[in-house]
Design goal:
Helix content: 40-55%
Strand order of the largest sheet: 1-2
Structural class: mainly alpha
Mean pLDDT: 80
Length: 69
């Protein structure tokens, strides 16, 4: 189950790279802000879903390093 969850979170990371004009991306950008083409993490005010995506984006849990930056 952990690998399945991780793969779904990685799919969202991949979509963040290629769908920057989509509504969902613009909502996240308005909510958390953007620096250098990446949406900011948002700290403790961020939703659990978004914090998990940020951890995957940083390579936490995947064993591949910082792949999405």
């Amino acid at each position: 189950m952990r690998e399945f969850n991780l793969s779904l979170l990685e799919k969202w990371c991949w979509r963040l790279l290629g769908e920057k004009e989509e509504l969902w991306y613009r909502v996240l950008k308005a909510r958390y802000g953007e620096v250098g083409g990446c949406i900011k993490e948002g700290g403790n005010d961020a939703s659990l879903w978004w914090r998990m995506i940020c951890h995957v984006r940083e390579g936490v849990g995947s064993g591949v390093g910082n792949f999405y930056s």
